[in-house]
Amino acid sequence: MRCVIARFPFDLTKSGVLESMRSVKPEPITGESVTIGRRQYPAKQVGEVVTRQDRRDFSAGEVIRAMTLLGFTCHGLPAAAPARALSPLERASADLGTPTG
User: Which branch of life, at top level (predicted)?
Assistant: First the structure.
């Protein structure tokens, strides 16, 4: 399938992506990601390996769009942990600030 990433056309296939990513160790995920086989990779890492382009040349969205069209499962940004509510004592302490000495 023809995909445009970083303003360049690429003919990508699902089997070609699987083969390219087979021996690649996944980096820690901090943003959007793609599940390839049984592993989850950052979208930018997949784009770099598949296109042989520098990561700064394309967006994660371009890679996500292409991988979705090829049938891979893509994941958005990781959900942030919900903020813990402060107790009344912690809230009062935060309002008062730190002592200057």
Answer: Bacteria
